[in-house]
Amino acid sequence: MEVVDDNTGTADALALVKDKIMTDFIVISCDLLTSLIPHQFLDMHRSEDPTVTALFFEPTKSEGGPFGSSKVKEVTQFVGIDASNSQLVYLDNSDDMDSDEFSLRISLLAKHPVLNVSRLLQDAHLYVFKRWVIDLISVVSNKRTMASIKEHVLPLLVKSQHQRVLADREGVTKAVEMAMATNPSTQKLALGLSTTQHPDINKTDGGQWKSPVSCKAIVLPKEIYCGRANTIPNYFELNRH
């Protein structure tokens, strides 16, 4: 067990214990309460084996969601999910709770024509990550703020799926290459990135770059209860269930 300061961000906390984590890992908030059976979430992750799988849910109004009654509200987050394969392709945080405006790249829409964007979804703070993501956090934190999983790590991974320059500049590509060199289990990923393999392995249709990053989103159906006791009103609401 590692004890960190209360003001330590979630990504910073991971960096502090990086030497103790040797495999892919789970991050879960201590204030999360859900009736989701854990192995269901993990099985969904195993079936796709992405870089990260994140859990989202739609809170009730009384739980302080985007339109909730809680006086302490989280920043509005626009979440874009490809309806065809549950790929998490867009994240944008807005300080304006009433804002309905967000921007999308034309190239993103071209790749994901069936894209559902919502600001009703809330991040449950339950993730499964590849081990190399911790190394990425350490590298990027030397250049800029990388304190929060929700605000910094997850958006970077999501953007790196589509922006090659960003992935190279921030060290995402290098982190994957280092993981391939040290972990034999990444052989499949190594073949996917190899420039000596058949074009169908490492390129998408049209000869476009294929990112080594894959982000998946699982949205809980409303019949599965989920909530977070991250505010006093939310805590009281959870005790009603």
UniProtKB/TrEMBL annotation:
Component of the translation initiation factor 2B (eIF2B) complex which is a heterodecamer of two sets of five different subunits: alpha, beta, gamma, delta and epsilon. Subunits alpha, beta and delta comprise a regulatory subcomplex and subunits epsilon and gamma comprise a catalytic subcomplex. Within the complex, the hexameric regulatory complex resides at the center, with the two heterodimeric catalytic subcomplexes bound on opposite sides. This is Translation initiation factor eIF2B subunit gamma. GO terms for biological process: cytoplasmic translational initiation. One of its GO terms (molecular function) is translation initiation factor activity. It is found in: Cytoplasm, Cytosol. The keyword Coiled coil does not apply. Coiled coil: none annotated. Keywords: Cytoplasm, Initiation factor, Protein biosynthesis. Belongs to the eIF-2B gamma/epsilon subunits family. The keyword Metal-binding does not apply. One of its GO terms (cellular component) is cytosol.
